[in-house]
């Protein structure tokens, strides 16, 4: 009897959330206020990280900028300060667990408050063929460490703060709010050829986000801690320079402007949306991957030229390495 009642409730929930999802496409829910939040962004010196910092500051938040590259990180801080915002920079390699914990401690001591929002954005790509042994083993490991393990060290540290709040700081428990943003990729939802290491790291980041989200939902005391998974298609930041699909397909699916990508991600974050694929059309291959037979997906990938989309990217990286623009293996 209880089982049947539970099943009825579950089905009502399913219908309700499906209807709500449809309604949200036409009627945007209210956005939350992030002014006064302390937002930590990893990879803040890079294309998307910098824009995230500027967006949050524009909305009245204070930002803590982490990057392995002190110079680009400072450049982001300068832009933020010029816009009248508050930025605090820390040179941190997110793959170094101990250094991450030390930096988190320093942030807490320096600012006298806890980080309330975290954007796990730092990422790398080798841009060489793993299966051809063009990528040194330590570079494969680095991709996994930055794009996946880093999320653990940075988030766990922040998560521990939330737990500490709940255990030791009842007034903060009453506030019960926070947000963990995982910047993954559409390549964490469906894969393409020649980027095995990158796809593995992004699929792992998606798994990390999903499990964490489920975990936060198991405790009522944590229901104010939100999560958002950001899965962009190719963005014009230079990270995947040269990556191309079939010319005709590019008319529908062009590389994203970094500013557009971050604005879309912010829209999702501000309404506590758990997942956003940018642009929306990329939900189709995500769903198709699960619904269509494998060979049917392969046929569409071939037709769209997405099976070989990384060839020109790898060639670009090779010539960059040959010109000394990036470090060769
Ligand atoms: N560009 C694209 O097409 C897409 C990107 N993404 C994801 O978006 C995120 C941002 O990418 P994007 O802005 O384009 O890339 P960028 O290379 O411009 O930015 C990444 C930043 O992360 C920093 N970083 C690298 N390793 C570490 C580390 N160990 N610790 C701390 N910081 C580190 C980089 O420093 P340095 O420059 O010194 O390496 C850089 O400043 C990444 O996670 C990426 O995977 C997702 C979909 C598409
Ligand atoms: C595989 C694939 C496609 C191409 C995807 C590409 C080219 C993604 C590039 C993503 C990048 C660079 C992400 C970085 O994190 C299409 C055309 C959507 C069709 C479905 C299958």
Automatic annotation (TrEMBL):
<keyword id="KW-0443">Lipid metabolism</keyword>
<dbReference type="InterPro" id="IPR036291">
    <property type="entry name" value="NAD(P)-bd_dom_sf"/>
</dbReference>
<dbReference type="GO" id="GO:0052650">
    <property type="term" value="F:all-trans-retinol dehydrogenase (NADP+) activity"/>
</dbReference>
<keyword id="KW-0521">NADP</keyword>
<dbReference type="Pfam" id="PF00106">
    <property type="entry name" value="adh_short"/>
</dbReference>
<dbReference type="GO" id="GO:0016020">
    <property type="term" value="C:membrane"/>
</dbReference>
<protein>
    <recommendedName>
        <fullName>Short-chain dehydrogenase/reductase 3</fullName>
        <ecNumber>1.1.1.300</ecNumber>
    </recommendedName>
</protein>
<comment type="function">
    <text>Catalyzes the reduction of all-trans-retinal to all-trans-retinol in the presence of NADPH.</text>
</comment>
<keyword id="KW-0560">Oxidoreductase</keyword>
<dbReference type="InterPro" id="IPR002347">
    <property type="entry name" value="SDR_fam"/>
</dbReference>
<keyword id="KW-1133">Transmembrane helix</keyword>
<comment type="similarity">
    <text>Belongs to the short-chain dehydrogenases/reductases (SDR) family.</text>
</comment>
<keyword id="KW-0812">Transmembrane</keyword>
<keyword id="KW-0472">Membrane</keyword>
